[in-house]
Amino acid sequence: MRTFLTRRPRLAELITQLGKFGSVGAVAYAVQLVATNLLWGVVGLGPLMGQVLGTLLAIAVAFVGNRFWTFADRARTGFGRETSLFLLMNGVGLLIQLGCQWFSVYVLGLDGPVAQNIAGNVVGVGLGTLFRFFSYRTWVFPEPPAAVTVERTGEGSGADAPHEDPTAV
Question: Which of 39, 93, 139, 155 could join 128 via S-S bond, C-beta 3.0 to 4.6 A?
Answer without folding.
Answer: 93
